[in-house]
Amino acid sequence: MEPIRISHRKPTVSEFLELRKAVGWFVPTAESTERALRNTLFAACIEHNGSCIGSGRVVGDGALVFYIQDVIVRPQFQRQGCGKLIMDALMNFIHKSAAPTAYIGLFSARGLEPWYSKYGFVERPQKHLGPGMAFFKQ
Which neighbouring-strand residues pair with 72? Predict the structure, then answer.
């Protein structure tokens, strides 16, 4: 069996859509996915036996604002260190690219807040930051 390895690349459109489907997330169109991946600042994929089994992306302006997006690992490979490999790669890119005082954000899946806190992320609201908010175009 081939070991799990990380690759600093963007997933293909089909890999990205298959990963989202595997974890039960909304599956966007191929066209919007292609545009999103093209505009990604940095991405990492986890590969096993020639297949992409996980990925994550960094989006933003490349200097002051970064968002960690779409950290996905196929269910059968979760809790085996794949997410850590992805996050370590994404955070390494951010630490090298971000200007001092840059904002790095993410939206955590419910229950994963303690996991992301290991990377320095804090929950909102708190003393200095109000609640996070989101808007989804219909």
Answer: 55
Q: What angle do CA 76, 110, 52 make, to 5 degrees?
A: 30
Residue 81 vs residues 8, 26, 68: alpha-carbon distances, Å:
16, 24, 18
pLDDT, averaged per 10 consecutive residues of the chain (138 residues), comes to 89 98 97 98 96 98 96 96 97 96 92 93 87 80
pLDDT, residue 1, reads 57
DSSP class of residue 53? Answer: E
CA end-to-end distance (rounded Å), the chain: 44
Identify any residues that bridge with 67 across adjacent strands, giving them in sequence order: 59, 105
Q: Which two tokens stand for residue 116?
A: 């992301």
Q: DSSP letter string over 7-29?
A: E-SPPPHHHHHHHHHHTT-----
Domains in the chain and their CATH numbers? 5-117 (3.40.630.30)
Q: Are strands 51-60 and 65-73 parallel, antiparallel or unpaired?
A: antiparallel
C-alpha distances out from residue 96 to 3, 16, 28, 80, 99, Å: 28, 25, 31, 26, 9
